[in-house]
Every structure is written in C-alpha cells, then in structure tokens.
Design goal:
mainly alpha, two-stranded antiparallel sheet, about 75% helix, globular
C-alpha cells in the first residue's frame, strides 16, 4: 500500500478502480451513431467538414471521461501527439499525391493513360482488366496507396469515359490494389503482420494464399459477370469524340508514360513513398514545360508576369481545370492539388486524435480485454481476432494499429492453444488490412475516396475482395481448413498417441 507521500501507480489505480466495459464502449458507440446520422443527413458531402467536427466533439467527450477517471490532460495530449506523429508520413504522402495528380494531369500523363485505356478496353472487360492491372501494380510496388494514385486515377478516367458507374470502378481498383498489398513482400502491412506475430515473411505470404486466392478468384468472376451485363446493356460506346477531344487538347506522345514508370521503378527499388512521389511531382512539372507548351500558352492571360511559374506552381498547390470539347472530360480533367487534400488531412488529424485519447484513457485496452476473454475454441479465437481488428479500425482509424494491437494481444493465446503464428498473421491481414478502406473516417478510406474522387459509400458495395476476405478466413477457421498447429503441440500429440497406444 502506498504511503501518504507516494502516488499510486497507474497499474494499481487501474486494478483498484477497473473501467466498466459499457463506459469504455460509450465513445465508440456514440461516434458510430453520430457519424451514421451525419452521413444520412449530408450524404456524399459528409467528409466536407461535418464528420470531422463530430469526431472532434466525440474526442472531447472521451477526454472528459478520461479526466473524470483520473487520466490527466497532459497524459492524453502526449498520446494524441504520438498518434498524430505516426500518421504524419501518411499526411505527407496525401499532400504529395494531390500535387502529383494535378501536375500529371497538366503534363498529359493522366490524359495519355486515359487515351490508351479507352482505345484498348471496352465496358465488358474493363472491370476485370482494372482489377488485374491494379493487383499486378500493387504486388510490384507493395502499396495500395501508390497503385490508387497512379494506375487507379487513370482507370477512373477510362471507366467514366466508358460510362461505367463510379462505384464499380472504385471497387475494382481497390479490390485489385488490396490483393497485391496483402501478398507483396514489399508491403508494409504484410511485413508488419509477420513481424508482430513473429512469423517468417514468406511463410506468412504462402499461408495467405489459401484464403486470398479464392477471394480474388471469386472477385474476378463477379466483375466478369457485371462486365458482361454492362456490355449488353450499354452496347458499343462511341469514344471517337472523346479521343478527338484529348488529341486536340494535349500533345499525345509515348514519352508521357515515363513519369509513372519512373515512380513505380523507384518504389520497386524500395525507395520510400515520399521521395518517390516527390520525384514524380518534379518530373511532371518538367514534362509540362517540355510537352504541353501549346496548352500552357492557351491558359496564359495578357499583362501578367511570371505566368509559367504561377501556372505550374498553382497547379501543384491549388489544382487545375482543363476544358475540352467533350463535356464529360471536363470534370475528369480537373484536380484540386494539395489544397484538395486538406479536408482529408483534417479528417485524419481528427480521427488520430480520437484514437490517441481512447488509448491514453485505457478504454481501448478495456475493450480489447473483453474481446480476448470470449476466445474459447479456434473459431471463436479467429472471430475475436477479426472483431478486434474491425473495432480497432473503426475506433483508431488506422490500419497499422488494427494489425499491431490485435497481433500483440492474441499472439500468446494462439501459442497457448497450440496454433501456429501464421494462423494469426493471416487473420490480421484478412480482417485488419482489407477492412480499413471500407471505413470513411479511417486513413485508408479517406485517402482512397479523396484520390479516386469516389465516395466510400459509393465503392464499398463493389469491393468484393475486401468484403470476402474476412468471410473466407472465418470459413477456413470454422471448417478447420489449412489450420497449422505448433511444433510443440504436434510433438505432445504424437507423444500422447504413443503412450495411449
């Protein structure tokens, strides 16, 4: 027992005054209900500021509960700053992607990808081709974010020109991107899941294929069926006017394909995303001067000095709108630059603040403790892991936390019950990594919605791979398909069999 001049430790205080589960869940439930109502009221405009304000208000509620329970504001602030610090690379990437999308539009890189995509693809094969192309790109680059910012942006343009619904386009891009992100040895989440569970990387990847392979094949079949229906309903789409409008506005040359090749090459060479994207922005700016001089001159106005500088610089930070003779292309050939990403940055800052306060007050640990207590057999163990990943994704708004925290929580329990670590690492990827993009206020959901220009609630219904992956891992657990035991368990079981024999 502490003396009068000794303060009780946080651990002893927690044991003497444990937090009720209902109180720990209260902020999460309030947040989900409030955000759901907000989406109902604002629709696709919910991320314009109202959702951010709700997250900030609920963060205030959570902080107040923490103060009441004895967690000082100084402790909460340290956790918030730390959590936001972890998100800073994502924020920098987001800002660079805003500049990249705008300058690649101005340079002609995005238009030429759209141009060739329209010429080579048709509505019936578009969804399957997009999913496969994004999967290959993501495997090579190891990043769903880079894939969405490069191939994904181009495919949005092609799909809209072919009159494919936005939700289907986004679903195909995200399904392919997350397939590659899960199985690529270059992926940070793949390495994270292997590391926190102490699973050899390639053992983890091989084990992932058991659930990931069927999920991706089913996804391709569904997109193939949807594509055939689109082809029958829409018939042949006349794209000659669209192609002519692109040719009349931009200087079309194969050299414009070089910027994405350079960026993807740097990523393959394991250059970090931020410097790789920075190089892409610089190369894009140079290509404006080299290849789009006529377009540059057409956008200039008389009697204004340094117009080349202001046009290029303004494109990167403020965006650009390029008008063509095709009205449908005008919306596509517009981008918001870094400025267009500020709403998403605000969302990430708000969400990470909420996660930081939730963790500092011990509410997150209390929720995880209750979930862990429900695991009594292998299926319930996997189901609890999946639920924990989902709750963490919703509450902390970060896919890395949704992999790291459940990984640390359940590693000992899997081993104690005699199940090899790759069972856990696979479940983390099948339920933590892939569901992050389905949550609008999660960093992944906010990023992809902003970069692709397609609202989360438009594409969520068509992210078949992301929706199937958690179901597949639960089915494998229920029917005990490809469930590996630890060597210690196998030796014990063999020994027991020999004795009984």
């Amino acid at each position: 027992m502490p003396t009068n001049d000794q303060a009780p430790s946080p651990e002893s205080a927690s044991q003497e005054n444990p937090m009720p589960l209902g109180l720990a869940l209260l902020p999460v439930l309030v947040l989900i209900i409030a955000l759901s109502f907000n989406v109902y009221v604002y629709g696709n405009d919910a991320l314009g500021g109202s959702s951010q304000m709700i997250i900030i208000l609920v963060t205030g509620l959570t902080a107040a509960i923490g103060l009441w329970r004895g967690t000082s504001w100084a402790e909460q602030q340290v956790s918030v700053v730390s959590t936001i610090g972890n998100a800073m690379p994502s924020i920098l990437i987001l800002l660079l992607v805003g500049a990249l999308a705008s300058i690649w539009l101005f340079s002609g890189t995005v238009p030429i990808l759209v141009y060739y995509g329209i010429k080579l693809l048709n509505p019936s094969i578009f969804l399957v081709a997009t999913c496969i192309a994004c999967a290959i790109t993501s495997v090579v680059s190891g990043s769903s974010w880079s894939t969405a910012a490069t191939i994904g942006v181009a495919m949005v343009g092609v799909g809209r020109a072919l009159e494919i619904p936005d939700g289907m386009i986004g679903g195909a891009i995200i399904s392919g991107s997350y397939f590659g992100d899960k199985i690529s040895p270059l992926s940070d989440t793949t390495n994270l899941a292997a590391a926190v569970t102490e699973t050899p990387l390639f053992t983890h990847i091989r084990y992932l294929f058991y659930t990931t392979g069927p999920s991706f094949l089913i996804t391709l079949v569904v997109f193939a069926v949807l594509g055939l229906n689109i082809g029958r309903e829409g018939g042949d789409v006349d794209v000659s006017d669209t192609l002519s409008a692109i040719e009349a506005t931009f200087n079309i040359t194969g050299w414009l394909l070089l910027p994405p090749v350079i960026v993807l090459g740097l990523i393959v060479k394991k250059v970090e995303a931020i410097p790789a994207l920075f190089v892409g922005v610089v190369v894009g700016a140079l290509f404006v001067l080299l290849f789009q001089q006529e377009l540059l001159l057409s956008l200039m106005t008389a009697d204004k000095p340094f117009q080349v500088y202001t046009l290029v610089m303004g494109t990167m930070f403020g965006g650009i709108n390029i008008e063509t003779s095709d009205v449908a292309l005008n919306e596509l050939f517009s981008a918001g630059g870094m400025q267009g990403m500020l709403g998403t940055v605000w969302l990430i800052l708000s969400a990470m603040s909420f996660g930081g306060v939730l963790e500092a007050t011990g509410m997150l640990a209390r929720i995880m403790q209750s979930v862990k207590a429900l695991a009594t057999n292998f299926f319930s163990l996997v189901a609890c892991t999946a639920a924990t990943c989902l709750v963490t994704n919703v509450s902390t708004s970060d896919q890395y936390i949704s992999v790291a925290i459940p990984g640390r929580m359940f590693a000992g329990l899997y081993k104690e019950m005699g199940y090899a670590s790759e069972n856990l690492s696979r479940t983390l990827e099948d339920t933590g990594t892939v569901t992050s993009v389905l949550i609008p206020w999660n960093t992944c959901g906010a990023y992809h919605a902003a970069v692709l220009g397609i609202a989360t609630f438009d594409y969520i219904y068509y992210c078949f791979f992301n929706l199937l992956s958690p179901i597949m891992t639960l089915l494998f657990a229920y029917f005990m398909i490809k469930i590996r035991r630890t060597e210690e368990f196998e030796e014990t079981a063999t020994g027991a069999g020999s004795v009984s024999a």
